[in-house]
Amino acid sequence: MKKLITLAITAIMVTAWSAAAFASEVVVYSARKEHLIKPLFEAYTAETGVKVKYITGKAGALLERIKAEGANTPADLFITVDAGNLWHAANEGVLAPVTSATLEKNVPAHLRDPENRWAGLSVRARTIVYNTSKVDPNELSTYEALGDSKWKGRLLLRTSKKVYNQSLVASFIAEKGATETEKIVKSWVNSMPVAPFSSDTKALEAVVAGVGDVTVVNTYYFGRLLKKNPDLPLAIFWPNQKTNGVHVNVSGAGVTTHSKNKTEAIKLLEWLSSEKAQGKFASLNMEYPVNPEVKPDPIVAAWGAFKENPMNVSKYGEYQAEAIKLMDRAGYK
Q: pTM of whole model > 0.85?
């Protein structure tokens, strides 16, 4: 009898030890590149002792992997870029609602899912960049005005196949309706002297080369290019400051529906939104902190302050499919 009791106690202790060991680990699937997340995970482990295992890949592929793995997925947290991707993941049932006073405090409401299935972790502004030797900034005003006749043959854009531009157009549909938005997109197409570029960087390089005079890009692409060559004739212009503000997007994360370790996943998500982590999370990619208590990196701050559009970024996902169809009809490839 004593032997049986001893064996039972040992089994309980082993089970408890295994549970404790499991609880000290969290698994992350990340569409954010390794060099942008590894330093954060290492800092988290150093601070808490919790090991972070992660894999990186394309957002769509990771989402399909989580769906295919179903209840057997090892993923506890899904990190991706663009609110449209986050919205899609949530609507596919991959992300679970999380109640967190910490996230509510650290992340402004318009940068969180209304149903609390994900939260933004960094802000990226998609704004106008112009050639300083060819454009007087007083000529610039809004995104919509880039279709005016004075910009004909001068506007360069990235392809409509990229989610960043799909989100921008989706935000227009949410605010202005499809009819007005289609007119705007058609006017952009009429202003472009060449076909859209495959990346923001190529669009910026074409502005420098004189192919066009103005483009629309995420600010961190501008930052990366100028970091390599500070003498490039490029400058940022913050549009729509007298109307609805600059279009902003997020990178963000959510706890997976079938997480085996939701408690630790929530703790990691909350830590990533904290003042301690936010400066590094944003500065690694020259983005803006989502936490309003944290100042941006000095390089980013030097670009100046701006009024951002207060629209909830989940709208980008809601109108994404319509935006893709609209851009195709307008001839924006």
A: yes
**Buried b or exposed e, range 167-182, using 16+ CB within 10 angstroms:** bbbbbbbbeeebeebb
Residues 218-244 have pLDDT tens digits of: 999 999 999 999 999 999 999 999 999
Q: Are 310 and 111 in contact (CB under 8 A)?
A: no
245-295 confidence digits (pLDDT tens): 999 999 999 999 999 999 999 999 999 999 999 999 999 999 999 999 999
Q: What does the alpha-carbon distance between residue 7 and residue 78 come to, in Å, rounded to a whole number?
A: 40
Tell whether the torsion through CA atoms of 193, 196, 200 and 201 is positive or negative.
negative
Q: What is the largest CA-CA distance in the chain?
A: 93
Contact 105, 230 (CB under 8 A): no
Q: Which residues of 209-219 are buried (b: 16+ CB within 10 A; e: fewer)?
A: eebbbbbbbbb
What pLDDT is recorded for position 23? 53
> 20 falls in which pLDDT band (50, 70, 90)?
very low
Nearest CA-CA partner of 309 in 167, 184, 101, 158: 167
Q: Which amino acid is at 121?
A: L
> CA torsion angle for 29, 33, 38, 40 (degrees, to 10)?
-90
* C-alpha 292: how far from chain center: 16
How far apart CA 268 and CA 45 sit, in angstroms, is: 10
d(CA 285, CA 104): 24
